[in-house]
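Chain A, query sequence.
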Amino acid sequence: MKKKLFAVVILIMNLGMVNAQNNPLLGEFKAPHQTAPFNEIKNEHFIPAFQENIKQGEDEIEAIISNPASPTFENTVVALENTGRLLSRTAGVFFNLMGSETNDELQKIAQEVSPMLTKFQNDISLNPDLFAKIKAVYAQKDKLNLNAEQQTLLENSYSNFIRQGANLNDEQKDKFREISTELSKLSLTFNENVLKETNSYELLITDQSKLAGLPESALEAAAGLAKSKNKEGWLFTLNMPSYLPFMKYADNRELRKELSLAYGSKAFKGNEFDNKENVRKLAALRLEMAQLLGYKNYADYALERRMAMNQEGVYKLLNDLYEASFNKANQEKAEVQAFAQKSGFDGEIMPWDWTYYSEKLKVEKFDLNDEMLKPYFELSKVVDGVFGLATELYGITFKVNNSIPVYNEEVIPYEVYDADGKFLSVLYTDFHPRDGKQGGAWMNDFKGQWKDNGVDSRPHITIVMNFTRPTETLPALLTFDEVETLMHEFGHALHGMLANSTYSSLSGTSVYRDFVELPSQIMENWAVEKDFLDRFAVHYKTGEKIPAELVKKIVDAQNYLAGYLSIRQLSFGYLDMAWHSLDLPFNGNVKDFEENAWAKTRIFPIIPEVCMSTQFGHLFAGGYAAGYYSYKWAEVLDADAFSVFKEKGLFNKEVAKSFRENILEKGGSEHPMILYKRFRGHEPSVDAFLKRSGLN
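Chain A, predicted structure.
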């Protein structure tokens, strides 16, 4: 998930001011629910809007500092919390477009805007007069009679100043400004390079004999893609709906290898889009920033605000799961290798063979593959099913409102209502790949939720995917993995839509990184439940419900390659921690560093041409630095939490009400372990996760 990119990325002043009459970003948003007027916004509006919004934010900060009254929670902490709302509104529009609908001009603007926003943030956190007022309120914290959410806001406000350099001397503050500005620019460049590498690769095949093994749906999609680009033949790209079917089904090993190497070598080719130096710089700058603030390394800095608390907590999780997974992963590899040899393959299985042969073995063992399931997962029906689950659990309903402007004609805007008819949120869905869209899937918000002067200002949420497109003869049919992806991101969306906090910085997904995946990952559990699938999984041609025996095959195959998949995730966690537990800057070979970092998890031979670090956006552009372990951490939480639904009923209203009130609505208003224990009754146990994964 990508949360509030604008909180870490920032822009430059160089254009004159324009007034609200000429710039829709500066006036009141008059679309339904004050949603963004995408039909009016042009690229040239952004820099003047950011300039004016920052000026307004600076005036708001000055008003707090110059207030002659003694500092109080309301006139200092709450006043600071409420500054910059117009800036957040503009940033919410801009940085979401950067992920979903970018172009060269927007990317150029982002490189200008980034230092501007960083400077504004630093001018706040490094302002000694403002910090003195925050500190004065903090010193009275035990006498203020604050509720839990107010206490959290005060603690966070004070801590954030410390963690953003408020206690540094003037020379150190200048250095902090320099580092944070460079970090924001480098993160943008890193992401742009990966996107450009992804978009620049095409595999055009004109000889149909080279397409043996591919199902008709993949062939039709590839032909349609070629036609859309005025080319003859079948076109394959590095976007997942195109890439994955080729790796699963194409008999041609050399072409699988070519595609696999192209995917694995993104931003690692020594060309203008190479990210090796950016990786070294980002890791070094994060280390320098952490040490400037008094920490040994960046991991120590980041983990101070995590449920894991420190490196020991992270490595305990990674190592415990490694012990449970590694032998099983090697057994699985040996089984796939033996199957490949039985099928006539001669040699050691490589990554470009793995998906192909493991898929065939899955069919042999479970009589199950994507093509058998896809007819039952037509996109619009899946959306109905997922929305219906939210209605069943939480009473919320969804209504398309085409009066809400969208940034691309494929985007569908919904109004979301609570059971009592109260408006809850706007939800945008954006499902298919485009050249201007980053790969992967994520949830974000265009506008967060907060309460002010008796008004509950509701959020505008977006979920973005890269799902298989419809073709000339087929609707958009999802793989089972894509169904799970939709449910995952929709879980994040629920966390945002059901937010019920007073303060925006504590609302929705503004929680510890290793807690934020709980609401998303718990949703995936329903995907293997027949009682849920029966509500929407019908054959797109016949209307027949998904057969019980097919659902049983899904369940039986649920833990297929569980060891391998666990080790793969753990390898990313070890790599993340290696980069961010460095105590000295690294100036060596990025590939060698990577291979050493995850050596204990390796089950395939080293491939010199590929590198994960240079395309690992979660780490170097997406907010998961020293936090990738969070996915495994949250798996423990979600398995433990879902066990309550399994025990009391998949659609049990009381359990759902408790999960909504104690987890989804609360955001970061209290420590996540307090919230979790309030729902569960005790701290999470690893037992449910190990049982579900077949690793016990």
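DSSP finds 27 helices and nine strands in the chain. Residues 2-18 have pLDDT under 50 and may be disordered.
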